Records
---
Amino acid sequence: MTRIPRRERLIAALDVPDAALARAYAERLGEAVKFYKIGLELFTAGGYFELLAWLRGRGGKVFADLKLYDIPETVRRAVANLRASGAEFLTVHAERSIMEAAAREKGALKLLAVTLLTSFDQKNLAEMGYAGSVEDLVLQRARAALDSGCDGVIASGLEAPKIKAAFGGKLLVVTPGVRPAATPTADQKRTVDVGQAFANGADYIVVGRPIRDAADPRAAAEAIQASIAAAFKD
């Protein structure tokens, strides 16, 4: 895999109500962030693709976190539309026929399969009728993602070591639900801190509320960048 610049390993989630606020937030973050996630909240607000182009025009990279999940043909056609958007990453749910359909149209777009939302835990799996462990399900879905032509997976830092042990550099691991030490977890259940995420094998981390809700978001982002620099001293 291509070497990842350290400062691109932090993906800041622009989880705000509209594109104007997202632009103001990105400007406030300045050079502290090089990679941004724009997801469903902004997608439903209007101006999504204009925002994506604006972020790209400022030299940023963009993760389109749309978590596509529909019949394979619909997903295939949606990915065909999205591949020229300029996004670096796009998420799809880790169901084999959906991933295979998406992979056929991805072009240079990197597909990330969502193994299991970090707001889910073992109790949630039991409620859905799945008898296995969280770890087993995530590894099963990671293997299917690789076989289907995806470039990586979305997985918590708790499962990252097993994914890297099983697949090495064949799959990127993008870890959401990252919480710096002493930060509330809110609705996230399978969380790790910054250092633990990278020690466990994450390639990128996605951080939302700990930056967005900080008194000084840029300072919060720079603190995370400092933790990343400490984790990658080479």
Note: The radius of gyration is 17 Å.
---
Amino acid sequence: MKHFLFTVALAAAVLSSPAVVQAQPNAPAAPLAADDAREQASLDKHIKPILAALHLSDPAKETQVHDILADHLKALNAWHAQNDAQLKSLWNEFNKARGKKDDAAADAALAKIDDVYAALKPGHAQFLAALSAVLTPKQVETVKDVLTINKVKITFNAYGQIFHGLTDEQKAFILQNLKAAREEAIDAGAMTEKSAFFKKYKIKIEAYLTAQGYDVKQSYKDFVAKQKAASAAEDSAATPQDK
């Protein structure tokens, strides 16, 4: 069955801690060099799809963007190495509060998460400023989309399928909030945390749609039922060889 939900396969790059070894003065430490090589390979692996999506025809510009991304991702990885344990605990608080339908506790957990991420705001602004000095606004959007597995477009299209008859004003509200989610999610480490930022804003979107007269829960049920029916029809129409 084709679901509107999607899976993600991208993982955040991880910094390795260099081993302490005996070395001659001014001689390169082999374990450190190996760690550097692994780190660079990991960074390049994550930068490659971004550069591919940009379709830059200027090698000099591509090198500039590569270096900007590498510097940013290294700094981001180092920051997450120091803060992920605390963030994981806070996201668990948020999820538990949501499970208990305790909106006040969920909001309190999100406020704490925002406080932790406040330290990244200067670096976030510098990163986008550096990109904007080399790329067009549309290309910067492309970088943000690749870093978040195109969640804005996919989720926006899903809302259009689930909630029928959305007005232009309602669509604009949804898109604005999904882009706000993306702005925060690009600083997240693991994809699970990027998704959590989108969940934060999906809660706002669904509260808005409820206030606009939509039955959110029923709309989701109707959509899932429609998808199941379509899947069953495909299965019944498939030939034995196809099956």
Note: The chain is about 75% helix and 0% strand.
